[in-house]
Structures are given as structure tokens and as C-alpha cells.
Write a structure and sequence with these properties.
Length: 558
């Protein structure tokens, strides 16, 4: 699954920052060793600055598209089958403590079966056991529901055998290569609390159940969200008494709050001024910057909206932009200076090709494509066809100075190529809750994050995943991509169980995507984690699960 703001074999460059010191190692090298975490004391509270506030916390619904909701409240409270952990320098799915062993997947004449043996100690926060009924409830809510964020894999589920409360046997009607994503990207929901009720109404604005180490104590929209320990969690109990996320969408204000001690931790989108401050050294602040990112930023194009309903126009836009120059300006100080050439992020780099590398700044090619599509420059030096100019709006998130700079550079480069672009800044809730799902945009600049180390381009580009009345307005193909030769390739990537064949098909799909330019990959966003000396424990970025994946092990430095 991919969220805005499931994929891993080759790794991008890694950069780690100690205060005032930049240490880098290239792909294939071992990352620099981390200093031992300071010991912690029991109790206390930590305040974390949060860049985004989710629109809702009904995790399977379209409104839950913001990755920050996943980081803050989903991962700490929802039990999942597979965690993602760093094994031999590769981010790899490993069974969680929800199950007693690796689930068993078997190909059958009818399709595929997956057997999950549930930990006998696993219970919900009210003490009720987590059972196979919870797996069944979750599977059917996703498979049969409307307004579902992404049904990939769940749409293949034929049945769930719940005859043994501690063993769930899931039968798929066709094989699913990404079966480990099931019950891992969304987690498992409590049937005994939700079945027969309005799940969305009970979960959207917060819920009081948990199958993880934390519970949601409160969510004050627009201000903060607070977690407290789940006393009935069967695994490692949190050291802290409370964690509060303070919503600070403005990056300048967030940085000031960290320096003044108003917040203890930040996970900001990297900004030019922030990077220079980190490199110069921040008294009392520790930092980590990791370029091995699952966060892929792109220029997203609505293929059903003028002027991007034309393949020639989309290709011309790709030849209008100097992507390497933009990336160098944004992230050159972190050793990231080349554009991303695939929509498969570095976390699943083995499945990626570099076909987008053909799109470099070439104004002669722009002219050739536009004139071939019936366009001509008007008196204002803007492309025009049938009385309509090549004018469009670029949607982006408000309060992010790096994206403000990016859109300004894009605006200038596109103007030189004959395109007129305006900029519209919106909130995450509006962008991911209504604007993108409803296709009410022409172009946009935002990042999507792979939430599992498995390739899932079908989520974004398979035509059946365009939200529509036919599929209950489910799916995250917000870009209205419909490429007949692409659909069977993406479907094969999802179905093919042979890894080598799957990689080959994925690269074939990459080539078709690059030829049609349904959108344009820009960069993978380096990940930045900042924390005060007050905080102890093993703080470390997890590019899949985010910076708070091991929040239970954090504490006040002793």
C-alpha cells in the first residue's frame, strides 16, 4: 500500500547526521554504527511536533490517506502480522508478536491459502483475546466495503476459516504475490467491538480500543493527539506515561518549537534552512538523516483533466523540467542530487527500471510534441489549442517551504517551455480527503510513502483502482490513469509468485509507465529525525513504519 503524505532489495545512498557532522555511505556499504542509546527512567511525558494532522483514523477508509496518521496513531495501536525491520542492511518483513510463527502461504488449485497462527497471549486492551474472527471481520470490511483506501489483495479473498479461534485460514481465489501485506498495512480490527455497527462512525474521530502498546487518550482536532500505555498489551510495555503530538504544519514554527523546548522531537520534511542549521550544529539537539527513503515525491497529473488528458502534453511537460537541478538544489547537501527515475521507490529498487531517465530538459522536444498534437504558441508565448491555453493549477501542501520553493522553480521552468502554471496551497485533510480522491485537480506536488517493502504500483496506476461509483469510490488511482497495455502487467506483478519473473514484469511495466508519463517522479525525500537530549532510548528512523515505530522503548534520559 502507498500512502500520501509496500515495498526492497537495493538501497539508495545512506547519510547519517550527528550534530554538526555529516557521515555518508553509498549503496551496498554498511551504515555508520549508532552510538549506544542513553538509559531511560520510567514515567514522564514526551511532546512530538507533528507536520500533518490526519483527516480521520478509520484506517481502511480513503480519508485516512495521510501517512502522519499512520505514524502517530495506527502503528502504536493496531496489531499487525508483519513488522518491517532492518535485516542484513535490508528493510525486510518479519512476523510480529501477533503471530507465533511465519504465516504459511500455499498455492492451491483454487488459488492460494494463508494460515495465521495467533499468539495465545494476544489480547485487545479490554482483555478480550484477538481471534480469527478479527481477521475475518477485517478482511470482509475491506473486501466488501465502500470508500476503502486500497483493496489490493483483499479483493482476492474468497473465505476466512475461523473454526479455530487462534488459527485464521484465508483462502484467495487467485495467487497474490504480496500476501504479506494482508493484515500488515491496515492491521487487524476488533470484531467483538465493531461487528454489526457503523465502523466509520466509531473510528473516524478516534477510538478507545488497542491491540498495540499504546492507546489513544484524546484527539483535539487542530491542536494535538495524546497516547497513553495500553496496560493489557502482551509485549514490551512503554516506558513513558504519555506521548503528545502537537500539530505544527508550519516548518519554521516547528523548528522554533524544538529549539525553545516546546517540543522534544521533530520528524520534519527536510528544508534548506533546516539542513544548514543541522549541519552547523544545534545545541542540545541530536539528529539523524537517512536517504534510504520510501517517500517518493512526484508531479502528479490528472490524466482525465485538460490538458493532461493528452499523452503528448504529459510527455512535453516531462521534457520541460530539469529534475536533476531541482533535486540538487533541494537535497544536494545530503548527497542526493539525482532525480528519481521510477515510481518504485528505493525500498523496492530491485523492481525498478530507469526509463524516466530519457526525460531531461529539451525545449526542442517540447516544441515537436506540442506542435505534433496541434498546439501553437500565442502572443503571450503560451501554448494554445482550439481556444484553450496550456494553463493549469498545481496543488500542494500549505506551510512547507521546500515544496513552496519546488513549485516556484517548476513554475519558472514550465513558463520557459510555454506552460502557464498557478499554485494552490491546501491542507492535507482537503488534499487527501476530498481533492485527490474526487479527481478535483489538474496537477499536484506531494509525496507518497510505501507502507510495506513490496511493489504495489497497481494501487496507483491500475485502472480499476480509480475511485468511482462502480467500486464504491475505493482505490488510490487518484490520477485517473487508464493505460490498456499497463493493466495486465501490473496485475501480473501482483499475481506472479516467482521473484525473478515478477521483477522482469515490473520492469516491463515501468517502461510502459515512462512511455505514457501518467505522472512524473521527482525525488525520494530524505528522512530527518531530530530530538532533544532529554530523550533516551533507541531512536532510529524506519523508512516504512516511520520514526515512532519503537516508541515503547523511548523514555526520559536517566
Amino acid at each position: 500500500m502507498r500512502k500520501s503524505p509496500h515495498r526492497s532489495l537495493t538501497l539508495a545512498a545512506l547519510a547519517l547526521l550527528s550534530v554538526g557532522t555529516l557521515v555518508a555511505c553509498s549503496a551496498g556499504d554498511s551504515p555508520p554504527e549508532q552510538s549506544s542509546a542513553p538509559p531511560v527512567v520510567e514515567g514522564g511525558e514526551v511532546i512530538i511536533g507533528a507536520e500533518q494532522e490526519p483527516d480521520c483514523v478509520d484506517w481502511i477508509a480513503t480519508c485516512a490517506g495521510s501517512i502522519w496518521g499512520t505514524y502517530m496513531m495506527q502503528i502504536p495501536t493496531m496489531p499487525i502480522v508483519f513488522n518491517t525491520r532492518l535485516i542484513d542492511d535490508v528493510w525486510t518483513p518479519v512476523p510480529s508478536d501477533l503471530v507465533t510463527e511465519e504465516p504459511v502461504a500455499e498455492e492451491t488449485a483454487e488459488g492460494q491459502t494463508i494460515t495465521y497462527t495467533i499468539n495465545p497471549d494476544a489480547v485487545w486492551s479490554d482483555g478480550e483475546p484477538i481471534t480469527s474472527k478479527d481477521f475475518e471481520y477485517t478482511a470482509l470490511q475491506i473486501r466488501d466495503g465502500d470508500d476503502i483506501f486500497d483493496k489490493t489483495g483483499y479483493d482476492r479473498i474468497a473465505s476466512v476459516d475461523t473454526s479455530d479461534p487462534k488459527v485464521a485460514v484465508v483462502t484467495l481465489d487467485t495467487p497474490f504475490a504480496g500476501w504479506r501485506t494482508l493484515f500488515s498495512t491496515y492491521g487487524v480490527m476488533p470484531a467483538h467491538l465493531l461487528e454489526g455497527k457503523d465502523r466509520a462512525a466509531l473510528m473516524t474521530d478516534g477510538y478507545d480500543f488497542s491491540g498495540g502498546p499504546w492507546k489513544i487518550e484524546s484527539w483535539d482536532r487542530g491542536t494535538s493527539a495524546t497516547l497513553v500505555p495500553n496496560e493489557n498489551y502482551w509485549g514490551e510495555k512503554p516506558n513513558l506515561d504519555k506521548v503528545t503530538y502537537l500539530f505544527l504544519p508550519d516548518t519554521t514554527a516547528a523548528f522554533q518549537a524544538l529549539k525553545s523546548g516546546q517540543v522534544d522531537v521533530l520528524y520534519p520534511s527536510p528544508q534548506l534552512d533546516a539542513i544548514s542549521q543541522i549541519d552547523a550544529g544545534l545545541p542540545g539537539i541530536n539528529s539523524q538523516v537517512d536517504a534510504r527513503s520510501a517517500s517518493l515525491e512526484a508531479v502528479w497529473l490528472n490524466n482525465a483533466a485538460f490538458p493532461f488528458d493528452s499523452k503528448a502534453v504529459r510527455q512535453a511537460v516531462a521534457y520541460s523540467i530539469d529534475r536533476d537541478a531541482i533535486v540538487e538544489r533541494l537535497f544536494g547537501a545530503l548527497g542526493v542530487d539525482k532525480a528519481q527515475q521510477s515510481f518504485n521507490s528505493p525500498i523496492v529498487g530491485a523492481y525498478a527500471s530507469d526509463d524516466f531517465s530519457e526525460y531531461t530538459l529539451d525545449l526542442d522536444k517540447v516544441t515537436e510534441l506540442m506542435e505534433g498534437d496541434g498546439w501553437a504558441k500565442n502572443a503571450d508565448d503560451v501554448w494554445e489549442k482550439d481556444g484553450q491555453t496550456a494553463t493549469f493549477s498545481m496543488e500542494t501542501l500549505a506551510g512547507n517551504k521546500r515544496r513552496d520553493l519546488t513549485t516556484q522553480v517548476l513554475q519558472s521552468q514550465l513558463a520557459d517551455a510555454g506552460f502557464e502554471m498557478t499554485i494552490n496551497s491546501v491542507t492535507p485533510a482537503d488534499l487527501f480527503g476530498t481533492i485527490a480522491p474526487e479527481g478535483d485537480f489538474q496537477a499536484g506536488l506531494w509525496a507518497i510513502v510505501d507502507t510495506f517493502p513490496d511493489p504495489t504500483l497497481s494501487s496507483s496506476f491500475l485502472s480499476t483502482n480509480v475511485p468511482s461509483e462502480d467500486n464504491g469510490f475505493s482505490g488510490i488511482n487518484f490520477y485517473r490513469v487508464s493505460i490498456p497495455e499497463l493493466d495486465p502487467l501490473l496485475s501480473q506483478v501482483d499475481t506472479e509468485l516467482d521473484v525473478d519473473a515478477r521483477i522482469a514484469t515490473s520492469k516491463e511495466a515501468d517502461a510502459v509507465i515512462a512511455e505514457n508519463v501518467p505522472s512524473l517522479p521527482l525525488d525520494t525525500v530524505p528522512l530527518v529525525l531530530l530530538w532533544s537530549d532529554k530523550i533516551g532510548g533507541p531512536l532510529e528512523i524506519n523508512p516504512i513504519e516511520g520514526p515512532f515505530w519503537n516508541l515503547a522503548a523511548w523514555g526520559i534520559a536517566g
